[in-house]
Amino acid sequence: MSVDRLMTTLCTHNLLASKQFYQTLFGFNVGFESEWFIQLVHPKSNVELGLITAEHELVPPRYQGAASGLFVTLVVEDVDAVFKAAEQKNYVVLQTPEPTFYGQKRLLLEDPAGVLVDVSTPLPI
Predict the structure, then answer these.
(1) Considering the domain boundaries, does residue 2 fall inside one?
(2) Which one, of 73, 65, 79, 68, lies nearest residue 49 by Cα?
């Protein structure tokens, strides 16, 4: 069995705000957009992220609330630049960039859907 593609899809109650968050902070482009679903694609890495309206019929009722028990990690070249942009846009910063014991500088944000977003940059060795 092979896996040909993996795309994380986040449920959101505000599709536009979620799209703007990932475009503004991380440079994602829209690969596909409809009234209820957006596929974001990063131009350098082709990493994909899906956004779906939480209330859509494809989302089982039990999963239409805020995300819980997961976080999305995005490894970027400059976590401090993401932090600065997040502050300028008044996004929710849960933890300012800090070095970790595992060799990365880590920033924690909350996206408009309430998803925990871990933004990291590897520290020089």
Answers:
(1) no
(2) 73
Q: Which amino acid is at 109?
A: L
CA 112 to chain centre: 10
Residue pair 72/120 in contact (Cβ under 8 Å)? The answer is no
Alpha helix segments (H runs only) across 1-125: 15-26, 79-88
Confidence of residue 109 (pLDDT cuts 50, 70, 90): very high
Global pTM value = 0.94
Amino acid at 88: Q
Structural domain contains residue 14: yes
Domain that holds residue 16: 8-122
User: How, if at all, do strands 71-75 and 104-110 pair?
Assistant: unpaired
CATH label of the domain that carries residue 44: 3.10.180.10
